[in-house]
Write a structure and sequence with these properties.
The chain is of the alpha/beta class. It contains 16 helices and ten strands. An eight-stranded mixed sheet has the order 1-2-3-4-5-6-7-8, sandwiched between helices. A two-stranded antiparallel sheet has the order 9-10.
């Protein structure tokens, strides 16, 4: 089994002029977008760019490998994707620029993006997925009840700014929420930019509310969208999309397959499988039924209550919560107890409904399976009775 680190090791010496840009390259750049290049990559107001190799060198001057390997958040390995890519002939001279990193508690927004100028004369615009900030996860929850989040709107503005900066063809992509932003931005950016988009990649990114998917601008961008999800995908199947998914193999299990670094690669392509797993299909049905069982206001109440509980002790990141361990758990529990009854019900009632949705999905699946078995048995009996006895 091989992953993108193996791809960089085995095929990193092959230039784009010999082997053109592929879906695996898209994932590598989407993962590098998680790396905080504040003060390193030229920002969105600048026309300057720096080679990827230089960005990596500067980043690792500021952060030791020992420090980075001590991290425990789910994107802790992404700096090493940057480091390994910077060593290769294929990626080292890619130029990085137009960096932006917006985090706003008041707007409940976490939006970061960067530009990669490729040797083939195109640009890959990568939107960062949800990072370690709790406000970033709050924006994820907001997707369930808000047609447009502040991050989505700023993603579209960011992409629209290419209408005056250059005329090069664009590829747009991201992992997780970054994939959602990539599709949204591509659908609703300025027309002049939209006409230059070659492809849009969403790597296990969630979908949208019907208010978005039913719009003509969204429907027109769909033919350009490449949706890549792991076989146990959960996040990539949330909400509506209309995508045709490419399902890939992963060496992780369950929810951990969301980690793109676990996706399996063969040569210059992902190892694909025919369909998502039964576990993924079960979770898709359960979560969809669960979400649809609540009004938009109830979804908002649940989201706000969860956020209040998680930030009650002053934590800004999930790492802050995990560092406190038992003390952090008591703070969260104490915050829940201090909530009024309506706020408590927004959390506990919603979670109870999730369990009920799971049971209903399971019962429906069992009923459908029993019906299939009964039909097969009936067919077999009919065939037997059609033959004359000797």
């Amino acid at each position: 089994m091989a992953n993108i680190f193996d791809y960089l090791n085995w095929r990193g010496d092959i230039p784009f002029s010999f082997d053109p840009f592929c879906a695996v390259d898209n994932l590598i750049l989407s993962e590098i977008a998680y790396v905080g290049l504040d003060g390193i990559a030229p920002d969105v107001t600048s026309r300057e760019t720096i080679p990827l190799a230089e960005a990596s060198e500067q980043f690792f001057r500021l952060h030791s490998e020992e420090e980075l390997r001590a991290r425990t958040d789910f994107i802790c390995r992404t700096p090493f994707v940057l480091q390994e890519a910077a060593k290769t002939r294929r990626f080292r001279d890619i130029r990085v620029g137009r960096y932006v990193n917006r985090i706003s508690k008041s707007a409940e927004e976490q939006m970061s993006a960067m530009e990669f100028l490729l040797p083939d004369g195109t640009a890959y615009v990568a939107f960062r997925g949800t990072d370690d900030t709790i406000i970033g996860w709050k924006e994820d929850l907001n997707l369930s009840f808000s047609a447009q989040t502040s991050g989505q709107e700023h993603a579209a503005e960011y992409l629209s700014s290419y209408s005056t900066s250059s005329d090069m063809p664009l590829r747009v992509g991201g992992h997780s929420k970054g994939g959602n932003f990539a599709v949204y931005a591509s659908a609703f950016c300025d027309k002049a930019v939209k006409e230059r988009i070659l492809s849009v990649y969403t790597n296990d990114g969630p979908g949208f509310l019907p208010e978005i998917t039913e719009k003509e601008d969204f429907r027109r961008i769909l033919p350009l969208v490449h949706s890549i999800i792991p076989k146990d995908s959960v996040f990539g199947l949330l909400l509506s999309s209309g995508y045709v998914h490419r399902v890939v193999e992963s060496d992780n299990k369950g929810l951990m397959q969301h980690d793109g670094l676990s996706w399996q690669v063969l040569g210059n392509r992902f190892v694909e499988v025919p369909a998502t797993s039964r576990a993924s299909a079960f979770m898709e049905k359960t979560l969809q039924q669960w979400i649809e069982s609540f009004s938009l206001q109830e979804r908002a109440d649940f989201s706000n209550a969860i956020y209040e509980v998680l930030t009650s002790g002053g934590a800004d990141t999930l790492t802050d919560l995990s560092k406190e361990k038992l003390a952090g758990s008591f703070k969260v529990l104490n915050s829940f107890r201090k909530m009024n009854r309506q706020e408590q019900e927004a959390i506990s009632g919603t979670l109870r409904q999730l369990v009920r949705s799971g049971m209903q999905t399971l019962q429906k699946d069992i009923s459908e399976k029993m019906a299939e078995v009964s039909e097969k048995v009936t067919d077999a009996r009919d065939k037997d009775s059609s033959h004359p006895a000797f």
